[in-house]
Amino acid sequence: MIAAPPPPPRLLLLLGVVTVVVSAAAAVAGAAPACETANCGKGRCVEQPGPFGLDTYRCDCDGGWSNMFKLIPASPCTVPNCTFDAACFNLGFTPPRGIPLTDPCVFVSCGDEGQCVKDQGFSYHCACKPGYVNMLNLTMFPCIKNCAFGMDCSALGLSPPPPPPPPSSSSSSPSPAPPGYVSSGNLLQLLLLLSLAMAHIM
Fold first, then answer.
1. Is 9 within the bounds of a domain?
2. Start and end of every EGF-like domain (predicted)?
3. CA–CA separation, 102 vs 42, rounded Å?
């Protein structure tokens, strides 16, 4: 397993400020309890009282998973406790492609081998080039090489996905919506999660 270096103190301070701002924005917007908009990845959200009377949460990770930042209890459980080849991640940051606040792809990087595709509303998904898959098989995450995870990761569900089935020419039912839709209620949490992931990788 590859150990990540601890995040710099300025990054921790920035993440703390971002968490408070996001929580405050959710409280002002009349949002539901913290766990209704939290994304803990491979973990369970547990609500707890926070500063200034705002509800906050922590992510309790499932077996075999760790928080992205051990010092930030609200960081998502996205680090597998198994071997993985960091060189296979090959994540690069694609700079934002515009200013419109109605396009979630302005704020999302799908990696050098993926492209953000805007869906309905504030929803999007990362479409990967051949030979690449979405991290954790979730289409809201960046594209990584198929070779990233070792054999001991299969118990965590991190083996390469099976090839897609061949297209059917006799389909009379409408095709399902692409996976990875992100509601506007989860957009702030997702943006925080993606910025944490990019900061962790860089």
1. no
2. 34-83, 104-148
3. 29
Looking at residue 2, the DSSP 8-state letter turns out to be: P
Residue entry with tokens 């949490």: 189
Residue 126's SS3 state is strand
Q: Fill in the amino acid letter for 19.
A: T
State which amino acid sits at residue 108.
Answer: V
pLDDT attached to residue 85:
65
**Whether residue 90 is found in the same domain as residue 140:** yes
Token pair, residue 4, equals 């990540």
C-alpha dihedral (94, 98, 101, 105), degrees to nearest 10: -40
List the helix and strand counts (H, then E) for the chain: 4, 8
Nearest to 138 by CA among 99, 186, 74: 186
- Whole-structure pTM value: 0.44
Report how far Cα 184 is from the mean position of its chain's Cα atoms: 15
* CA nearest to 191, candidates 19, 34, 27, 50: 19
CA distance 170 to 135: 32
**Torsions phi, psi for 80 (to 5 deg):** -75, 140
Instruction: Please give the structure tokens belonging to residue 199.
Output: 């900061």
Residues 75 and 124 in one domain: no
* Tokens at 102, concatenated: 């109605």
> DSSP E strands: which ranges in 102-141?
114-118, 124-128, 132-134
The domain containing residue 46 runs over which residues?
Answer: 32-81
Q: Which tens digits make up the pLDDT trace of 143-160?
A: 877 666 666 777 776 665
